[in-house]
């Protein structure tokens, strides 16, 4: 049966359409997650547990930088003082499953965005669809950059700080595998979603909820929110918070510019229709 025109669809028709898009998204995530589960040994050894090795690129770079300026740092230690352990019967299996699902979501993200775009795009005008052709590529690129930022910056900074933090020498860091993977998962996903800020601002500007003037007016409040957000997703040391806050502030500034372009195009369109 041919798909109905957007103007002919009822509320239930929209829900049915959304249901099929969500089903396709779930199938894509499940298929990729299954492949990730099959290769889980490689994923855990080469990706998940890689930040526990002091040869990790981030530690190597920061150690070289600290040595250059003659500063003593834990980034130059021989090893990270933690032991990963499992204390529940299904702990390792659950870690395997959730890691596979995370991998399925991350790798399938472009397809997820494509399906959401297929649901939204029929409600846009032809010229709006034309100017938004790069939406899937840009949003996917921003997400993957955020994921890499979370994996290579936020995750190792958090692990290094928390592993070397000690209240007494008699306390050993024997970390449950679920806690460790939770840190990696939250760092990667939070960073990936935060890097979608320009896309979110674009759509909020399109529907009139945000303007460039509003973003500029509340820039100082945004700075405070960014610092709080940086403190949440990173260990509570100033250096780590600054490292995370800088790209978020750059994204905020880029979002202001994007909002300005959207408003300018809308005014040109209104002037042309008068």
TrEMBL record:
Subcellular location: Cell membrane; Membrane
GO CC terms: TAT protein transport complex
Keyword tags: Cell membrane, Membrane, Protein transport, Translocation, Transmembrane, Transmembrane helix, Transport
A GO biological-process term: protein transport by the Tat complex
Membrane topology: Multi-pass membrane protein
InterPro entries, sorted: TatC (IPR002033)
Parts of the chain that traverse the membrane: 21-44, 97-114, 135-154, 188-209, 221-238, 244-263
Pfam families assigned: TatC (PF00902)
Annotated protein name in UniProt: Sec-independent protein translocase protein TatC
Species lineage: Bacteria, Pseudomonadati, Bacteroidota, Flavobacteriia, Flavobacteriales
């Amino acid at each position: 049966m041919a798909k109905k025109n957007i103007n002919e669809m009822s509320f239930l028709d929209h829900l049915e359409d959304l249901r099929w898009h969500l089903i396709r998204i779930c199938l894509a995530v499940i298929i990729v997650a299954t492949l990730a589960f099959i290769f889980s040994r490689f994923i855990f050894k080469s990706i998940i547990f890689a930040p526990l090795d002091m040869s990790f690129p981030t530690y190597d770079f920061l150690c070289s930088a600290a040595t250059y300026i003659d500063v003593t740092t834990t980034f130059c230690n021989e090893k990270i003082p933690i032991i990963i352990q499992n204390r529940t019967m299904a702990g390792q299996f659950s870690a395997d499953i959730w890691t596979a699902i995370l991998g399925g979501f991350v790798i399938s993200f472009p397809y997820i965005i494509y399906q959401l775009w297929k649901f939204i795009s029929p409600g846009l005008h032809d010229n709006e669809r034309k100017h938004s052709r790069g939406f899937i590529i840009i949003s996917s690129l921003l997400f993957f950059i955020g994921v890499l930022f979370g994996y290579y910056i936020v995750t190792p900074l958090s692990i290094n700080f928390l592993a070397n933090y000690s209240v007494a020498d008699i306390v050993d860091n024997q970390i449950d595998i679920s806690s460790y993977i939770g840190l990696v998962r939250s760092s990667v996903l939070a960073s990936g979603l935060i890097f979608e800020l320009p896309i979110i601002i674009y759509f909020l500007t399109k529907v009139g909820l945000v303007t460039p003037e509003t973003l500029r007016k509340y820039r100082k409040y945004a700075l405070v929110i960014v610092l709080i957000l940086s403190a949440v997703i990173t260990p509570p040391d100033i250096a780590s918070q600054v490292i995370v806050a800088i790209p978020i502030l750059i994204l905020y500034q880029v979002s202001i510019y994007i909002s300005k372009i959207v408003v300018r195009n809308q005014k040109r369109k209104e002037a042309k229709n008068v």
